[in-house]
Write a structure and sequence with these properties.
The protein is α+β, with helices and mostly antiparallel strands. The chain contains eleven helices and 21 strands. Helix 1 links the parallel strand 1 and strand 2. It is globular, with a radius of gyration of 21 Å. Bound molecules: flavin-adenine dinucleotide and iron/sulfur cluster. Iron/sulfur cluster (SF4) binds next to loops.
């Protein structure tokens, strides 16, 4: 008899689980969003829209880029991808292995990372197209002894034209996103149902037996032998809590803050984002043109082509929560202190570049790496199954990560989802 599995979500974790499980199971992927559509407007059009004054609130971005969803808290703007490919469609393609915290609790993902190397093209080929200001910033970071590294990227970056539009959707099909895994699952027989928002898991006699999902006005129950939740760090905890399974108030999000300056003809908006990365204690620094601040931050008044910015991405304290009714996530004192240190460092780098401190502007704090509300523990290193979950229910997304990384998590989530799938298929 063919066993059935439901995978909820088609982002980094969900698409991986669907690809790994199809065959051992007949997989059905339930995806809340629709087909991803990139934003095709040209930069001059985007500048005109910005100047029109119509862009008042970050949540409006959904009108022009439907896959990008925004939640707001008093301290920050949270960015999330809804649709096939999840948040990976909005990513900048960075591919860093970040499993130190998982290894610390006894989860060795070497085999999975080796598989990933065979399945996803990863390179630093974009380096050949760096603009002079990026090369200079790289040299400055080297001179400061900060060991900058060209960022490994997922995709065929020898074809990258450096248009700088990664977060709006790659027009060249260069950047890898999880739709490639999803397609492989579908080619092997998996079923994909879009516009299907899972609300809760049905549990009978201590086992998960299916999910209740909303499609338009209709509610429907899907039954299966295994359920794999991969709706992302903001949605998976809500589905779990709706199903009577508590989560931990350990939401992290990796807040981002950009330090920007006017630099005539910088053209950073037309270059691969995050071309290199500097690792610091608790944060990273990387050159980045911040579209959200460019659109919505009133202080961010410079023309796109004349803006040069450094991004700080912080490993925030694991304090915060989301439920059906509320989202609580603030910057703690430690977060603010680390952000302050990082701003000072960026100011120093930009000063050495030739920019005066008084000419710098800070962007909007935004964050796009939610996770951590059902963190794996050492006791679960073999089962990959939290004790509070009923039998036959697994989680395979950023919700499992024990700590914030302040670093790109896709590669690590893919590796984790592979391991969860392996255990779940046994
Ligand atoms: C602008 C931006 C750039 C980024 N760049 C990088 C990068 O370069 N490298 C990197 O490693 N990381 C990057 N990230 C982070 C990375 O994309 C995410 O951390 C990662 O995709 C999370 O994987 P996930 O499987 O947990 O969730 P997601 O990829 O978000 O997938 C969740 C899926 O579940 C679906 N879903 C949600 N709710 C439901 C529901 N109720 N029912 C059914 N389906 C549901 C969603 O539509 C989505 O398909 C970036 C994030 C942002 C916002
Ligand atoms: S810079 Fe442009 S071509 Fe290169 S990966 Fe990003 S969106 Fe694609």
């Amino acid at each position: 008899m063919v066993r059935e599995a439901i995978v909820v979500g088609s982002g980094a974790g969900g698409a991986t689980a669907a690809k790994e499980l199809q065959g051992a199971f007949q997989v059905t992927v339930l995806e809340a969003g629709r087909e991803f559509r990139r934003l095709s407007w040209t930069l001059p059009t985007l500048e005109r829209v910005r100047k029109s004054g119509l862009l008042l609130d970050e949540r409006e971005i959904q009108a022009i880029l439907p896959a990008m969803r925004i939640h707001k808290t008093p301290d920050m703007v949270l960015v999330n991808g809804i649709g096939t490919g999840g948040t990976t469609t909005l990513s900048t393609g960075n591919a860093l292995r970040m499993d130190r915290d998982l290894r610390a609790i006894g989860i060795d993902l070497d085999v999975e990372f080796q598989e990933i190397e065979r399945e996803i093209p990863i390179s630093t080929a974009h380096q050949a197209r760096w603009r002079p200001h990026t090369r200079r910033l790289f040299e400055i970071c080297q001179e400061m002894g900060m060991e900058p590294r060209p960022t490994p990227k997922m995709g065929e970056y020898e074809r990258c034209v450096g248009c700088g539009r990664c977060v709006l959707g790659c027009p060249q099909g260069v950047k890898w996103d999880s739709r490639r895994f999803l397609q492989q699952a579908v080619d092997r027989g998996a079923r994909l149902i879009q516009g299907c928002r899972v609300e809760r898991v049905t549990i009978e006699g201590g086992r998960a037996t299916g999910v209740v999902a909303r499609q338009g006005w209709r509610r429907r129950t899907y039954r299966a032998d295994r359920i794999i939740l991969a709706a992302g760090g903001l949605a998976t905890p809500v589905i779990l809590q709706n199903s009577g399974i508590p989560c931990e108030s350990r939401l992290f999000v990796d807040p981002v803050l950009c330090v920007a300056a006017r630099w005539d003809g910088a053209l950073q908006c037309r270059e691969v984002p995050m071309p290199f990365v500097v690792q610091r204690n608790g944060y990273i620094v990387s050159p980045y043109f911040d579209y959200l601040s460019f659109f919505f931050n009133r202080r961010w008044v410079r023309p796109a082509r004349d803006t040069l910015a450094l991004m700080i991405k912080l490993a925030d304290e694991e304090q915060g929560t989301i439920s059906r009714r509320e989202l609580r996530k603030t910057l703690t004192d430690r977060d603010r202190q680390r952000l302050g240190e990082a701003v000072e460092l960026c100011t120093d780098i930009l000063r050495r570049f030739g920019i005066q401190a008084q000419d710098l502007t800070l962007g909007t704090v935004n964050a796009g790496h939610p996770g951590g509300m059902l963190p794996l523990t050492a006791d679960e290193a073999t089962t990959m199954h939290a004790k509070r979950l009923p039998a036959d229910l697994y989680v395979a997304d950023a919700t499992l990560l024990p700590h914030s990384m302040g670093n790109p998590p896709i590669l690590t989530i893919v590796a984790l989802a592979k391991r969860v799938s392996r255990v779940c298929a046994q």
